[in-house]
Amino acid sequence: MSAPLRSIFFKRKSFSSLTNFHLNYFHGLLFDLQQQKIKISMLSLLLISVLSQNIDAQDKLRTIQHRAFKAGEVLEYRVHYGFIDAGIAKLEIAPELKPIGTRQTYHVVGTGQTRGAFDWFFKVRDRYESFIDTKSISPWLFLRRIEEGNYKKSQNVTFNQVTNTASSQKATIATPENIQDLVSSYYYARTLDLQNAKPGDVFSFDAYLDDEVIPMKVKFVGKEKVKTKLGTFNCLKFHPQLLEGRVFKDKDDMTVWISDDENKVVIRAQAEILVGSVKMDLQDYRGLANEFSARLK
Fold it and tell me: For residue 283, with 0-12 CB atoms within 10 Å meaning exposed, 13-18 middle and 19 or more buried, which class applies?
């Protein structure tokens, strides 16, 4: 999920979050990749140990049948703050699945960075990683590296979807079943059955942020055509339900348009905030699971 979407969905107070969905859900903090691999390996070994003790319980995990995405998908977005070309956001699913214990996972990396004059004004280099179970579409491991102006944060979170707990460097908390993280939330949302959705319908799920459980609600508004530099798309329009008075004037101040086809890709996300507006448009893609039939021209 890009950081603008992260700030919108998860109501972060800092101005930096506004320049980071998902949606969503950026170009990562530059850190030693070898050390990162060691950390991931250690966390994976911990999860493997836990999962090996709960093999029977794993059979009780849900299975979601979907065709919305697959390994190898890449989505790239252009982020605007008002009329300013502020940055680039990218979501990538690794071409190969990654095993954690007996479970197969999608390894998703979300990166983002500010560009041009905005980079000089407020530099952002963020990186998020999620290892999402291919069957239950829920995360086992989440890595977060943030560099936003003078603010920096490094966080590793392991999720035990069997015992319903989440553990960071600071705390272990109880979670609802199938808890999502900042990145996996976007991919889980793409698996929702929207065929019979009616204007006003609300879709709900729970997500983890900073050792807390955040209830997520997204309201379906209707269907619209959206014109971007990439083309014109048939879209489904949604309002994520937001917290008023901090970053947003009204709970419906964010709008997300997703492709009205099997891919359910975010085409545009736009938010009216207390200090302006943020817009994110899809500018490139590859490796979609299905024909991009929502694209008209």
Answer: middle
